[in-house]
Amino acid sequence: MSRFIFFTLILALFSAAAEADQIRVGGVLYREVYIKKDNGYYYIHHPTEGRVEKVSRKRRDVEELAIDEDEGEREKILKAFNASKQKRALERNSTAVAKPLDSAEFLERQALRTLALFETQLNHWYGLSPVEREQILVSLRTSVDQNIERRTDASRDVQSKLGSLHTEKDKYESKVQTSQSKRDRAVGDADRESASDIFMEEYEKSIVRNNIRGGRFYGDHWREAAETESVIQNRKRDSANRIYNKEIQEHERSLNHVDSAITAQELELGSIKSKLSDALRRASSFQARIDELLLAEKQGYESQLRATSVVSLDSDKSQRSQVFEVPGGLWRIECLREDRGVADGFAIVIVDEKGDSPFTRIGDLDFLRMRARVFDRPGKYYIEVEQGSSGVPYEISIQSLSKG
């Protein structure tokens, strides 16, 4: 009896612990959640918040993953998630007020965002040493030159292939014309060599002369000879058409294949030229922006926007920040990593606290080898930092901006 009670208690303990799924991310343990996964990510469904959190499976700080085997329990968690999600959507729709944005206000906000990004980049530029500035300029020029060289080489290769394909096309067009000429000549020879018309003419003459001897008409041999010649002539014509039409079809198939290859290469060439034009435009744009920074520094530019710190993060690990609020106006996020270089999977995800999906994702470096964005949408947000494989330290700063 005591043994039965012991096993009953053990089962009860395991049943109580097995409440849907759980996972630990960045040191934070999430219990009673619903987890889906694919090859690249875990999707953590928070039932009370109606929110999905996307976590890379490459993160080194993901631990204690447990998927409940009780599908009924998991289904309860998913239903609770869907209910919370619906409730949040209704709340957003009921509180949302559509405010039309006129063109003047739109242009003003756009100008402010441009100004804020410029001042963010200028502040970063001020903080760089001469050596770091030169490294950025050299890296930028090298990257642009390599990009242009790569596109130019690709364009040259495609043009060479097109030249060969057009030569091949000319060859097959010539073969088609040659086979057509041979066919027409063979058919003409069959017509010229046939004596069918001559025999039929003699047959018709015999009828006119009424060449009857002993009650028998002797002109039939001309008709029979004409019919035999006609059969021979048709066979020669059919043979010539069959042989040369087969050749023509083979050449035309090859010609169609070459035409398709030419079309594909011409599309590729158009794409390369477009990318080359874009690379040249970007190079010009980067240089213009560097020139703006240099000119602003030379003229002693004074910031027109005042920055107030909202939240700061620094670490060498993946993490999720607390929810922060940006009450209104402009705000920006800046991120620097000590390597100032390769991204290696590093990314910052800004999530709207009221939303079901990320507000934005920042992964790529800009031309100053930093990550910076400017926004003008107030709200409550939190940050998810996806650390790369290298574990390089980073610093993230979020600031609200105002004129002044």
What does this entry look like structurally?
This protein starts with a helix and ends with a strand. It has helices at residues 2-17, 71-95, 103-126, 130-193, 196-209, 220-298, and strands spanning 21-25, 28-37, 41-46, 51-56, 62-66, 212-213, 216-217, 305-315, 319-320, 324-326, 330-337, 347-352, 358-362, 371-375, 379-386, 394-403. With 404 residues, it is of the alpha+beta class. Residues 1-18 have low confidence and may be disordered. It is elongated, with a radius of gyration of 41 Å. The relative contact order is 0.11. The longest helix has 79 residues, at 220-298. Strand 6 and strand 7 (216-217) form a beta hairpin.
List the keywords.
404 residues; alpha+beta; five-stranded antiparallel sheet; 6 helices; 16 strands; disordered N terminus
Quick overview of this protein structure:
The chain is an alpha+beta fold and 404 residues long. The protein has 6 helices and 16 strands.
Query: Whole-number radius of gyration?
Result: 41 Å
- Which regions have little confidence, pLDDT < 50, spanning 5+ residues? 1-18
Structural class: alpha+beta
The largest sheet has its strands arranged as: 4-3-2-1-5
Terminal CA distance reads 80 Å
The share of residues in helices is 40-55%
Mean pLDDT equals: 80
- List the helices and strands in order: HEEEEEHHHHEEHEEEEEEEEE
Number of strands: 16
What overall form do the CA principal axes indicate? elongated
| SS summary, helix count | 6
Largest sheet: 5 strands, antiparallel
**What percent of residues are in strands?**
15-25%
